[in-house]
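[[Sequence with tokens]]
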Amino acid sequence: MGLAIALYAPQAYKASQKGGTLMIAFNVVRFRVRPGMEEAFVARHRDAGRDMAGFRRGALVKTGDRTYCMIGEWGSMGDIVSARPTMIAMLDTLRDMLEDLGGGLGITDPVSGEAVVEMGMPKPARPKAKARAKAKPKAKKARKAPKKKKK
């Protein structure tokens, strides 16, 4: 089973173009849910805590009949490593909902790494500058009459 991911992370892209060091990392975990457990599995992900340091965003993707991938975006690989105990604790709450994937994998097929190529939608073309509307002339200020000199 192949997995193709195209993500756009403007900050990391800009930094990499300028030789910066900002790097993002991703983790992907594949699951197969037991029959009749899909709604509970999705609900558990929807209600899951997201208070892990460095976690930017995630998505649970339905990839087939009872198969899903969880994709997480992180600030760095170090953030993923630090969050592993929390992620394993969440997995422990899901174990009864999952089926063995076969091939010696067990109930999950996890991978993670740093982004090396970032892809995204092309930026829309900027609209042509409209001719500037002529500025309304400013109202002239009333001039004060010059003071008369005393003789």
